[in-house]
Amino acid sequence: MKRRFRRTGLALALLGLALLAGWGLWALLADSDGGQVQATLSAVGAIAGSDTAGYARATAPRPFEFPRDHGPHPEYRTEWWYLTGNLDGPQGRRLAYQLTFFRNSLAPEPAGRASNWDTNQFWMAHLAVTDVEGDRHFVSERLARGAVGLAGGRASPFRVWLEDWEMRWTGSEELDAGPAPGLFPLELRALEEDWGIELVLEAGKPPVFQGEEGWSQKGSEPGNASYYVSFTRMPTRGRIHLGGEPVEVEGESWMDREWSTSALDEIHLGWDWFSLQLDDEREIMFFELRREDGEPETLNHGTLVAPDGSYRPLHYDEVEIDVLGRWRSPLDGAEYPSGWRFRIPGEGVDLEVFPVLEDQEMNVSVRYWEGAVDVSGKGVDGPVAGRGFVELTGYGETPAVEGGSRGQR
Fold it and tell me: Residue 74 in contact with residue 105, Cβ under 8 Å?
């Protein structure tokens, strides 16, 4: 496997921002050329329940309003725009991508604007491309202050950017009348020296409001929740650049929008998150929070989306996930699940989910595994296949839980 990696920003500045943001220092090892762990921030710490004074909290369902809610919510501490996609090139060449923008408030009150550099907003972006045929996973990260135009976001006309990486609405001046006005067509552009993405995403199914009308509770304490909306199937076309060569691609993407001040409880080690797009035109989202005591978490939940875009919630006791294999990171031997049996007995769904490449680890400031997967098995109406993405956090950060199952380490 060939991995290419870029980081922008100074390590000392990043460490200072991490401490200010309450994200937690858990590793500061080699530089980016050393082939070792790079992580300085904890994914779990980023959305845990500490340091909430002065911020807005996700305490109950609230109406979503577009295009306003496409843009940033600086009154909340943490936010992300998360996009993944499975794409096909010429002769069936299989490619996949991830592009995620993260916003984090360093303090609840805006900066005093003594200068144009004053800001309380810290931005981070991750880019990855999986080349299945070439057995390669390309990874890059950028970091910036939300000042002097380095990084930021706006609701209308919609744009989120970090340096020259961006996602932006490319529609006409008049907003479309769809269920999410001001978002589609959505252009993604993120290029490194000789690889990257240039894609256009079109509106597919209507938005899915996760949890209770978009209020997704992930912790037992009041306010330990997020506002969470997904776009589960977006037709996608454009170019993936590899080795300086543009490859024309088309396929389907998934987008998650989420913001919160705190979400997880202290007992949570991380999460296993699944987004599956099936060829019967259904989609499934489900996440499992892993507890340090190894017990099942009753807050786990997800959604089953029908071909017509209607959807119903999936509760913790409706989904059964069993790990079928393991993969050890060559960096330090950290062990991740690799292959799952995913069942919804009440719907007759019985699927196997396997990574297209075992090593799709994101060895960046926040270390996690994020990768494209293939799906096969039995769906609601019979045999089904599909594609998707899986995200695994916390496995490189904490000791293993003994005796766990169903996604436990």
Answer: yes
DSSP state of 399: P
If you ran DSSP here, which 8-state letter would residue 92 be given?
A: G
CA atoms of 182 and 364, how far apart (whole Å): 32
Q: What are phi and psi of 211, to 5 degrees?
A: 75, -135
Nearest one of 360, 351, 291 to 321, comparing CA atoms: 351
For the entire predicted model, the pTM comes to 0.89
Establish if 405 belongs to a structural domain.
Answer: no
Nearest to 399 by CA among 386, 409, 389, 387: 409
Total domains in the chain come to 1
Instruction: Find, among 399, 65, 406, the residue nearest to 229 by Cα.
Output: 65
| Encoded tokens for 338 | 């690799």
Please determine, for residue 8, whether its predicted confidence score (pLDDT) is greater than 70. no
Residue 188 domain boundaries = 11-393
**Model confidence over 100-115: pLDDT tens digits?**
999 999 888 766 666 7
Nearest 5°: phi and psi at 77?
Answer: -75, -40
Which candidate, 89, 67, 71, 68, places its Cα nearest to that of 79?
A: 71
| Tokens 């000791």, located at residue | 399
DSSP state of 56: -
With respect to residue 286, please indicate whether it lies within any of the assigned structural domains: yes
Q: What is the maximal distance between C-alpha atoms in the chain?
A: 63
Q: How far apart are CA 353 and CA 217, in angstroms?
A: 26
Hey, what are 189's tokens? 């552009």
In a domain, 3, yes or no: no
